[in-house]
Design a protein that fits this description.
single chain; 368 residues; mainly alpha; Growth Hormone, Chain: A; 2 domains; MFS_trans_sf; MFS_dom; MFS_4; transmembrane; transmembrane transporter activity
Length: 368
């Protein structure tokens, strides 16, 4: 997860400021490149959810990690926006496949062993990879190299992780041969509101997740603050799945999901309302502390509201989230180019997160 997601998917955020400075990318172009990755992730998640891959989990997961390394290397060897879009789209597919197939193996063995802590530890790898990629990019910069070396170094780290995982990843546990057929989803008001809320969350979180280091660069916060912004984001993300568990136990699934949205909205507001260097640091910390648990709890909430059709609910929730995080950077890049900063896009994102929280309120009140 550290390689496939932390490096392969999210290292674009701290590398982007160097690409903008060196290549003269516009905010709109940066948004298009980011959206391409999220589009690929959505496509990979949808394609990977079907049964064609049964029995092929291990080699598909490993191939995805290998391709993630190759595609990252490709990013450092071109300066074409069109090539960036294609490479990030393919990288999104690879990240989704790694997430689906490697996770299915790890959690399958964890379930057989009755070890619930494995799930949190596994997904904490995303935050660990975010923090590690930030540290790597700082070291590359201190060595006097630029954004191309960032991508190539990230590719090298990802390839090393691929070799490690190929050595130790077991085969998938044996599953039942036939998956029972699910009925169509019952589109109750609660289900509709939850999916709309989840889609708006995808829009609201991704603006900060894509551009917060660029915002620190535009505010002249300095290289150390840029590093710490994404490093803190990764550290809080790695810890979030453990730290939010007591909240979920006290407030329930809906209450924890709602609280996460409110905290994240506060973080997005902080990223533009506070003075530098506090703005990116607080914004990054609150982003990391919330985006993974909202993602996880939202999916669980969708499944809980459609107990007869859990896989269909997962697919629709993923699609709603995917659409939101594709539209988010496109709108943010366009708006930032016209206003000259990411303040307006961040304010819009915070407002969208508050609307997302408002939509879940009537649902949360009806949950047991």
């Amino acid at each position: 997860m550290a390689a496939a997601m932390g490096f392969g998917r999210f290292s674009f955020t701290p590398i982007l400021p160097g690409m903008i400075a060196d290549l003269g990318l516009s905010s709109t172009e940066a948004g298009v490149i980011a959206a391409a990755n999220f589009t690929g992730y959505l496509a990979g998640a949808v394609v990977g959810a079907y049964g064609w891959a049964n029995g092929r989990d291990r080699w598909l997961g490993l191939a995805s990690l290998l391709f993630t390394a190759l595609l990252m290397a490709g990013m450092g060897l071109t300066d074409s926006v069109a090539a960036f879009v294609v490479l990030r789209f393919l990288s999104g597919i690879a990240s989704a496949f790694a997430m689906i197939f490697i996770t299915s193996i790890v959690l399958g063995h964890a379930a057989r062993a009755g070890n619930e802590a494995v799930q949190s530890a596994h997904f904490a790898g995303v935050g660990f990879g975010i923090a590690a990629s930030s540290l790597m990019i700082m070291l590359v910069g201190l060595a006097g190299f630029g954004w191309r070396a960032d991508w190539l170094a990230g590719a090298g780290v990802t390839f090393a992780v691929f070799l490690f995982v190929a050595r130790f990843l077991p085969r998938a546990p044996v599953h039942a041969a036939d998956v029972p057929h699910e009925p169509p989803i019952v589109w109750s008001p609660a289900v509709i509101l939850t999916m709309l809320s989840y889609g708006l969350f995808g829009f609201g979180y991704v603006v900060t997740a894509t551009f917060i280091v660029t915002m620190a660069r535009m505010a002249n916060a300095g290289p150390m603050v840029e590093f710490l912004t994404w490093f803190v984001t990764g550290c809080t993300a790695a810890a979030s799945l453990f730290l939010w568990r007591p909240v979920m136990h006290r407030k329930g699934l809906g209450g924890a999901y709602l609280a996460g949205l409110l905290v994240e909205a506060a973080g997005v507001l902080a990223s533009v309302a506070l003075p530098s260097p506090a703005a990116p640091l607080v914004g990054g910390a609150l982003l990391g502390a919330t985006f993974m648990i909202i993602t996880a709890y939202g999916l669980r909430l969708g499944r809980a509201l459609s107990p007869q059709s859990p896989r269909r609910a997962l697919a629709f929730m993923t699609a709603a989230f995917g659409i939101g995080q594709i539209v988010g950077p496109l709108c943010a890049g366009w708006l930032a180019e016209r206003t000259g900063s990411f303040s307006a896009p961040s304010l819009v994102a915070a407002a969208v997160l508050l609307v997302s929280a408002g939509l879940i309120l009537p649902v949360q009140r009806r949950l047991p």
